[in-house]
Amino acid sequence: MSQPTDAYALLVQRGFVPVELLRTMRPKDWIKNSFVFAAAVFARDAAGRPLFLDPTSFGMVFGAFVLFCMAASAIYLVNDLVDIEKDRAHPKKRHRPLASGRLPRSVAVIAAIVLLGSALPLAFVIDWNGTSLLQNSDFGLALLFYVVVQGLLYSFFLKNIVIADIFTIALGFVLRTVAGALVLDIPITHWLLICMGMLALFLGLSKRRAEMLLLQQNATSHRRILTEYTLPMVDQMIGIVIAAAILAYTLFTTTAETMPHEPFPLMLMTVPFVVFAIFRYLYLVHRYEEGGNPSELLLKDATLTGSILLWGVIAVAVLLIAPV
């Protein structure tokens, strides 16, 4: 093992506060915030060129990504503070810095306040055009709504309501996508909401399924709502959502106004990669009981990562080459 890895392990073992704080902020999960780029990838400017080629537009979306990372990390800190006792009954989460006692609660509270106190004001000015701030605060309102729903309503209320807990998890992904459109004043199409909504529900249901299998008999002591679900019911929901997601994306590639349609709907070439990625994820969920953390699964499964990257390369190539 290399010396830097040994040094990092030593810091973790000794409970080095900055390292433990960073771990609690979940930098690996920041990949979820890449949903903010979705609208910019498929949108076009007035001249018909892909919007992601514009440096200013890309910079604004990247700024939105950073602000969502800050807000999401603050929410992770709040969730871990609220669930600290329940996490101690979890076979994996009991090793988290707060649950294990390596990170003081006071440090987590201060960090959450600083992150939110910085991210929210910046969100209200990132797309400000010099006129009325209240008339140009769509992105700020979207981020504020995300924080309220995910950080407050979910942590203290919605996660204890069956079905509503899954919809709230899915809503977090949809809000990221919507916010990415709002920061650039891109029209939010029904295809954007349907495709991202179905994908988000699939990820949320897979998360619940993984938790049920991991906790099994100890589910009640960690999260009471898990007793309201059964594996057959969750599997049936996943099947419905997958079918709807694939159908919605296929229709999007063939009917959306921003997609090329001559000499044929070229974006149809990306459908097999989307289907493969979904099936691969489903395979990992069932065969290896994964799905509890989509970010970790994406980072450690090369086949899943490769299929998504291939989808991205082909989609960008089609948008660059083919006219609308």
From TrEMBL:
The keyword Metal-binding does not apply. It comes from the Bacteria. It holds the Pfam family UbiA. Keywords: Glycosyltransferase, Membrane, Transferase, Transmembrane, Transmembrane helix. It comes from Candidatus Chloroploca asiatica. The chain crosses the membrane at residues 58-82, 103-126, 138-157, 162-182, 188-205, 226-252, 264-283, 304-322. It is found in: Membrane. CDD domains: PT_UbiA_2. This is Phosphoribose diphosphate--decaprenyl-phosphate phosphoribosyltransferase. Its main location: membrane. The keyword Membrane applies. One of its GO terms (cellular component) is membrane. It is a multi-pass membrane protein. One of its GO terms (molecular function) is transferase activity, transferring alkyl or aryl (other than methyl) groups.
